[in-house]
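Q: A small favour: would you put together sequence and structure tokens for a protein?
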Amino acid sequence: MSSSRQKIKKQVKQHIPKDWLCDLRIAYRITMEAFNDIKRTGIMNLVIITTMAAILTIFGALFRTTISMSQFAHELGNVLEISVYLKSDTQPSLVADKIVKLQHVSKVKIIPKEVSWKSLRKEIDLPNITNPLPDTLHVKVDKPANISAVLNQIKTVSEVEDTGYAEDLAKKIQLVTHVVNTATAFVTIIVAILTIMIINNTIQLVIQSRKEEIEIMRLMGVSNWYIKIPLVMQGAFYGFAGAVIAIFPVNFIQNALQTLHKFALVPSPPFAELFVVVTLLLVGISFGAGGSFVSIKKHLQV
């Protein structure tokens, strides 16, 4: 029965002429209702927006730091190379062709033993002896996290005598990246929980103050979305206002990170500043509106 009713409603709606002026008036009334709800909240608006701004500032600062840390890890990963020492009487070019085809290998550079020996003799005063060094391959990997996997594959190549790489540095890079990413995810969850709690209390007060009005609207047959949307817009407003305020302290952190990038000669991620600002606004609005929607379902049976 319910499905047949829905079909009938759809058929009826299709034949009702659309009145765009009426839709515009409804949108205006909904917006004004949201504005009136914000006015009713009074001085609490300042407390809510300030709290939201503080929470989003912490999120934005950590999120921007995560982007920079990822860039530093990427640049250090590009410097990391696996040194592959070949057996005697092997052709380095053939071995290089084998290794470059391995998964996650981005580049292979051949270092002939004569070149290595010449460089070593420049650094250290050595007697005229036969070159004991092997031909070497320097293997670059696409990501630091894939070094161990590539190393295990290289060890299976029969022409390889030995391998080596800065294992401690690679592990530290992976650890720092993992810690920062975990911290960002944790803070995001905390931001969501705190936002929902703050918006929940606010929307509950608004619903209580408008309880009789909402009951009258129900009796008049006003649709549920007409009651819900102003409250959702109110939550979105708090998130937006908090995000706008949070942009200013986050910009100080972004400038400090830019200076750090220049000092370390590591290029800053492109469009990082704009990306952080847009993310702050989206997180603020979505969490504010989402928190309001959850509160409506909890405190308002519509």
